[in-house]
Amino acid sequence: MRIPFALASLMAAVTTLAATGQALAQDFKPRIVRFGYGLVDDSNQGRAARFFAKEVEKATGGKMKVRAIGNAALGSDTQMQQALIGGAQEMMVGSTATLVGLSPEMAVWDTPFLFSNTKEADAVLDGPVGEKVKATLEPKGMVGLVYWENGFRNLTNNKRPIARLEDLADVKLRVMQNNVFLDSFKALGANAVPLPFSELFTALETRAVDGQENPFNTVLSSKFYEVQKYLTVSNHVYSPWIVTVSKKWWDTLSPAEKKVLQDAAIKSREFERKDTREEAAKALADIKTKGMQVNELPAAEASRMRDKLTAVNAGIAKTVGQGIWDEVQAAVKQARAAK
Ligand code: KDG
Fold first, then answer.
1. C-alpha 237 – ligand 1 centre gap (Å)
2. Which of 138, 143, 180 is nearest to 313 (CA)?
3. How far is CA 270 from CA 9, 48, 291, 316, 339, in A?
4. Distance from the CA of 76 to the center of ligand 1, in angstroms?
5. Over the chain, what is the mean pLDDT?
6. Which residues does residue 95 pair with via DSSP β-bridges, in sequence order?
7. Rounded mean pLDDT of 210-224?
8. What are the strands, taking DSSP E only, across the chain?
9. Collapsed DSSP state (helix, strand, coil) of residue 32
10. What are the residues whose beta carbons fall under 8 Å from the beta carbon of 31, sequence distance 6 or more?
11. Closest C-alpha among 40, 77, 69, 38 to residue 53
12. 320, 107 in Cβ contact below 8 A?
């Protein structure tokens, strides 16, 4: 019996796909994935979450549906982390800084002035030691897939342009909830106040705090320019975000489903970094048109800031372990030397 050509071609294709391990839509179970994040929908974080969602739905023939849910609607970073650990939520993206309570090693990414540029950040975060730090999450109930870019952080406040370190002396500065940020800004003489990101805009609006520090992208997308007068370009630390999965849920997935999430996460990382950098490149001009007064921290003051902030490095090395600290320093040195 002759098999019609079209049917023969289809059978050959299916055989090839099966042989190469590539899954077909029917290999996937219908699943809903709640992917929570803290910034607003129209932000670099939101755009990348929706990109990820589309990639997963494309790869599973619509069987795995990712619901990207922003505005901290599923809770703050730490609340979502607990939901992932308990299996009540499947995925999230948030700051590595808020994971330090679970994985002390994550604090290494809070080291002031660790990276000089995004090339170094990408090389280290996506290299062996970045993988090693990411892997510390799994025993704690979360699986790290990829790092995204939050970006280089800058200072905003309502009191005055920060032209020298002493200008921070009486500024109530909101910081992310970990000791490195607390110690860093106390070392600079600021009155550091740890708060979840989800409470930040209101704290600024009600003058509960005078200032905060975040990348330009977030100052724009979260409309901090509406409640902040001054922005000082300091680039004092590069912040990563990390895309994570509930380990409880991850362990229910087939190898094919895990591969779809991993592949989509890598594609989303490339998308997110490109989108974030393009937005950051024009953000300062946008921030000025929104009415904020922008100044650069003078080089001499930046050097004083670096000296004061790097004084916390010994404490970070103790928190993360000398091994991780040394590996990260070596990786930065290698990335810096690479042409
Ligand atoms: O969900 C918000 C977090 O991603 C957080 O990292 C944003 O940089 C941030 C901050 O200052 O809390």
1. 13
2. 180
3. 35, 9, 32, 29, 21
4. 9
5. 94
6. 241
7. 98
8. 31-36, 64-69, 91-95, 142-152, 154-157, 172-175, 191-194, 211-214, 230-233, 238-246, 293-296
9. strand
10. 63, 64, 65, 257
11. 69
12. yes
Report the distance separating Cα 319 and Cα 253, nearest Å. 34
- Determine if ligand 1 sits within 6 Å of the CB of residue 214: yes
Identify the band that residue 18 occupies on the pLDDT scale cut at 50, 70 and 90.
low
| Tokens representing residue 5 in the block | 């050509």
Query: What tokens appear for 244 in the block?
Result: 């994570």
Report how far apart, in Å, the C-alpha atoms of 36 and of each of 48, 65, 178, 259 are: 12, 14, 21, 20
Q: How many whole angstroms separate alpha carbon 38 and alpha carbon 301?
A: 32
Which atom of ligand 1 lies closest to the CA of 213? 11
Contact present, 263 and 191 (Cβ < 8 Å): no
Tens of pLDDT, residue by residue over 258-279, are 999 999 999 999 999 999 999 9
Q: Do β-strands 91-95 and 238-246 pair in parallel, antiparallel, or remain unpaired? A: antiparallel
Residue nearest to atom 2 of ligand 1 (CA): 38
Tens of pLDDT along 94-108?
999 999 999 999 999
Contact 238, 121 (CB under 8 A): yes
Q: Which two tokens stand for residue 127?
A: 């290299």
On whether the CB atoms of residues 308 and 188 are closer than 8 A, the answer is yes
The answer on pLDDT for 15 being more than 80 is no
Instruction: Please tell me the pTM assigned to this model.
Output: 0.93
